[in-house]
Amino acid sequence: MNILLKELKATIKSLIIWCLAQVFIIYAGMMKYQGFSDSKVDVTALFSSFPKEMLVVFGIGTVDISKVAGFYSVFFLYFMLLAAIHATMLGAVIVSKEERDHCADFIYTKPIRRFQVILPKLFAGVINILIFNMITLVASLFFIAQHNNGNSLFSKVSLTMLALFILQLFFLTLGTFLGSLLKNTKRATSLSATFIMVFFLISIAVDLYNKLDFLKYLTPFKSFNAANLMLDGQIAAPSAAILLLLSLIFTALTFIAFNQRDLAT
Fold first, then answer.
1. Three-class HEC string of 92-131
2. Nearest residue to 148 via CA among 230, 220, 236
3. Tens digits of residue pLDDT in 228-265
4. pLDDT tens column, 31-68
5. Can the keyword Iron be found in this entry's annotation (predicted)?
6. Average pLDDT over residues 12-20
7. If phi over 0 gives left and psi between -120 and 50 gives alpha, with beta otherwise, what is residue 149?
8. Any idea what the Cα angle at residue 111 is, between residues 109 and 112, rounded to 5°?
9. How many Cβ atoms from other residues are within 10 Å of residue 193's Cβ?
10. Do residues 166 and 159 make contact, with C-beta atoms less than 8 angstroms apart?
11. Which residue, 17, 115, 155, 164, shows the most beta carbons closer than 10 Å to its own?
């Protein structure tokens, strides 16, 4: 319990910053929607004249972005990207920061096993991403209601946040695995960032070129379709199951790799 509380205290400042960034993205997105709505411009026709490459990069597909639900679904790409960076970096650092700070001997020489140290760290990571997710949910409901005649689209937004949390779990455990596998925290965070960038570029490439559609199975960013979540109220159950399974595998690998590594003090 002491380790859990210590980790939560150590991560609270960064968590606040990440949450504020997410809230700002939601606020800015809804303000942009309001601007389009007030201008009376046919947004769909306007964006249809843009190059496909530009629309893909900005996450604009075939959804009707003249509606709040469609416009909000466009921002799911940014939610995933920000949440992935936060979760992966958190996971990579939380299991190895004692070595980075040269104080590993103060905790790992105590009469407890390594898994008894790693387990509360993982719990702290899950609590962090859950708080991040809940802040995203509350901010989304609030700002959507402000621009949708009081209708917050609660059920659809909640389903979207469930998909986001599953993605967060995947990236958190990926980060903990990399953090436990590599001896250097900077290497772990750098490799984590590389994975995220590769996953993101693959998702962009899949949207740009139909012939690369088979690559969608290699990136978690294509596991869920924002339009299906926000417009149809449907979540891809197979994708959710695969990501949860991978999260369990990465968790097991985290314990195995960390138990076998030599700790630098």
1. HHHCCHHHHCCCCHHHHCCCCCHHHHHHHHHHHHHHHHHH
2. 230
3. 888 788 898 999 999 999 999 999 999 888 877 665 55
4. 887 777 666 666 566 666 565 655 655 556 566 677 78
5. no
6. 94
7. left
8. 95
9. 15
10. no
11. 164
